[in-house]
Each structure stands twice: as C-alpha cells, then as structure tokens.
C-alpha cells in the first residue's frame, strides 16, 4: 500500500481503502484467522461496545478520542457488510444507498418540494409519519412493532412509552406518574419478604419502567441522566479514596461513617 494512498485525504479514497482492508482480513486463504472465524452474532457485542465508546468520548468532549472511536464504529459497519456480502445478502454499497435513500425520503423539506419553513415540532411529526409508513410497508402494523429488542433496557422503555403515548395511552399529568412511582416503591418494599427472586425482579422492573416514564414527562433523557449520576458517584467515591489515602488508609480499612463524612465533604466541595 503506497504512502500516497495512505496520505490521501479524499473520503472516497479512504473508504475504498478501508473496504479493501476488510476484504483482505476476511480472505479465507490469506486473511486473519480471528477475523475469518467471526460471525454476525460474535461481532454484534463489539458493535454495541463501540457505540458506547463514541458516546463516552462525546461526554468527555475528547475530540481526538472521538475521531478514533468513530473510526472503530465505522469499521463495525464495514465488518458486518463484508460478512453479508460473502453470504450473498448485500454489500456496503447497498448499506450506504439504503441510508441515503432513507434520509432523502425523510427530509422532503430539504430534498423535495415541501416547505422548509416548518417548526421543529412539525418536522418531528412529519418524520414520525414517514417512519410509520416505512413500518407499515414492512408489515409492522402494531403500535409497538419495530422497537428493537437489543436496545439498552432503559432506552427501549422510553421508546415503547413514546409509541404508546402517540395513540393516547399515557398519563396526562406528571403528578400521576409520581404517584405511580410511590405505589411501585411500596410494592417493591413489600416484595422483599413475600415474593421469590423473580417476583422481586418483576417489581424492580416495574419501578424502573415508571422512572423512565417520569424522565419522559420531564423531557429528560434517562440514559444521559444515569450516565451523569454514574460519573458523579465515581468522582465523589474517588475523592473519598484520595482523602483516605492521604491518611494512609483504604476504604476497606475505614468505617461507613468515615466514608459517609468524606462523601458529604466531596459533595460540599463540588457546590462551592
């Protein structure tokens, strides 16, 4: 592979280069043994992981890392497309064409004759109408059809609730959702002593599902909110570890009261 090709900044050149690299990796005679033995099922977890790493780089505002993570995610698409082409299903060109066709169809106010002077709300309604028509052509006629099972559970809960809300199945007031959370919390507390492990899991699922509904009513992304809470917990717990280490101790050598006091100190420090 020539240095000129490697340095070429044209997107089409580098895309062709990446596709050729993927073909060589999967070549049954001269490719990489690990890449050759992979399947859609074995690669799918890596695809999900790479998508999360893209989101993580964005959350950290690390543009250098984002460039690499987007490349990793693109490679996942190339990998799946190569396996599909080998099996006679479709090629990467088919993937790109399908995406282009979909975007053009879903944006008639940009690529067609529709009026571009629409509110974001109207554009969202138009977008949903186009997607509903696409689902109907695929034979997905039920309200909740097409919500991917493989989505993270919290995100899938949100999407299911949004679909149901479009046909009127929704609490009209936030207070009703909060009341339901209180009800589910009581049921979970009672379940500790009276239900099996499956029953407790079921009640916990109900509570989490309603929490996702509250997030939707408050126009909060529950995944983003939980990621933020995770980061906050890690930051404050690491402050506890640092404070203890300063005194020659570890969390395992400390009491809960000590750590709780340090947690509150870290919390106060963040607010100053």
Structure explained in plain terms:
The chain has helices at 3-7, 11-25, 33-36, 40-59, 63-86, 92-106, 108-111, 120-137, 153-166, 174-194, 197-217, 222-246, 256-271. Helix 2 packs across helix 5 (63-86), helix 10 packs antiparallel against helix 11 (197-217) and helix 12 (222-246) crosses helix 13 (256-271). The model has no long low-confidence stretch (mean pLDDT 89). By secondary structure, it is mainly α. It contains 13 helices and no strands. Among the domains are: 3-106, Orthogonal Bundle (Helix Hairpins); 224-271, no CATH class. Residues 38-111, 177-236 form the NTP pyrophosphohydrolase MazG-like domain. InterPro entries: MazG-like_dom (IPR004518), NTP-PPase_MazG-like_C (IPR048011), NTP-PPase_MazG-like_N (IPR048015), NTP_PyrPHydrolase_MazG (IPR011551). Belongs to the nucleoside triphosphate pyrophosphohydrolase family. It catalyses: ATP + H2O = AMP + diphosphate + H(+). GO terms for molecular function: ATP diphosphatase activity.
Task: Describe this protein with a few key phrases.
about 270 residues, mainly alpha, Helix Hairpins, 13 helices
Low-confidence stretches: none
CATH topology of the domain at 3-106: Helix Hairpins
Count of DSSP strands:
0
In the CATH hierarchy, what is the architecture of the domain at 3-106 at level 2?
Answer: Orthogonal Bundle
Catalytic activity: ATP + H2O = AMP + diphosphate + H(+)
Keywords: Hydrolase
Enzyme class: hydrolase
EC number: 3.6.1.8
């Amino acid at each position: 592979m020539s240095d000129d090709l490697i340095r070429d900044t044209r997107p089409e050149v580098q895309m062709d280069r990446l596709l050729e690299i993927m073909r060589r990796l999967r070549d049954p005679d001269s490719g990489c043994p690990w890449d050759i033995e992979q399947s859609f099922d074995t690669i799918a977890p890596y695809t999900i992981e790479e998508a999360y790493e893209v989101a993580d780089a964005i959350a950290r505002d690390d543009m250098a890392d984002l460039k690499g993570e987007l490349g990793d995610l693109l490679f996942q698409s190339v990998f799946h497309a190569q396996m599909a082409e080998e099996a006679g299903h479709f090629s990467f060109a088919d993937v790109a064409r399908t995406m282009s066709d979909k975007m053009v169809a879903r944006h008639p106010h940009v690529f067609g004759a529709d009026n571009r002077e629409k509110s974001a709300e109207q554009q969202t309604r138009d977008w949903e109408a186009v997607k509903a028509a696409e689902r109907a052509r695929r034979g997905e006629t039920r309200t909740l059809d097409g919500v991917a099972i493989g989505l993270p559970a919290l995100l899938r809960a949100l999407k299911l609730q949004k679909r149901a809300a479009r046909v009127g199945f929704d609490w009209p007031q936030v207070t009703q959702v909060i009341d339901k959370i209180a009800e589910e919390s009581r049921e979970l507390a009672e379940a500790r002593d009276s239900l099996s492990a499956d029953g407790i899991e079921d009640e916990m699922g109900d509570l989490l599902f309603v929490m996702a509904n509250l997030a939707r009513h408050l126009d909060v992304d529950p995944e983003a909110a939980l990621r933020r809470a995770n980061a906050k917990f890690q930051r404050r717990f690491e402050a506890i570890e640092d404070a203890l280490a300063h005194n020659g101790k570890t969390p395992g050598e400390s009491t809960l009261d000590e750590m709780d006091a340090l947690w509150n100190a870290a919390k106060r420090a963040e607010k100053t």
